[in-house]
Specification:
By secondary structure, the protein is of the alpha+beta class. 37% of the residues lie in helices and 23% in strands.
Length: 139
């Protein structure tokens, strides 16, 4: 068998292949991360919020939102939107302050019969200027 051959060159070749495979996986992971960064977009036309990621595109009607779950995090937090058909999670830490606040305001403008969960903790910990939701808070 090749693995148990006492020939030094054979073991050296196998070791080189394993080291090469190790670094190839890291390079591929880095390329995946760069591609995901370049492709990620969140856009809105005031009625529909669209999130484009590397593998999937999602859109959610803001007027049909039924549940908004705010998750507090000192770096910016996240929000989970649910319209009964589609669910979308937005990590707010990836947005600059102006974009983050604009996105929060946009979501809060379209509240209809929406229930909120965790808004009080989110506004306190994440440091949003508006401290009260415009709809009922179901903490």
């Amino acid at each position: 068998m090749v693995l148990f051959n006492s020939n030094y060159n054979t073991h050296r070749g196998i070791a080189a292949c394993l080291v090469g495979l190790f670094w190839l996986l890291w390079v591929l992971l880095g390329l995946w991360d760069i591609a995901a960064y370049l492709r990620f977009r969140v856009t809105s036309d005031k009625q529909v919020l669209r999130k484009r990621s590397l593998l999937r595109d999602r859109s959610i009607q803001l007027s049909r939102l039924r549940h908004i779950q705010w998750r507090a995090d000192p770096l910016g937090g996240s929000v989970l939107l649910d319209d009964g058909v589609e669910r979308m999670k937005l990590d707010l830490t990836v947005f600059p302050d102006e974009g983050r606040q604009g996105l929060i305001d946009l979501i809060r403008q379209h509240q209809g019969e929406t229930t909120h969960e965790g808004w009080a903790d989110f506004s306190r910990i994440a440091g949003t200027p508006s401290s009260q939701p415009r709809g009922p808070d179901s903490n």
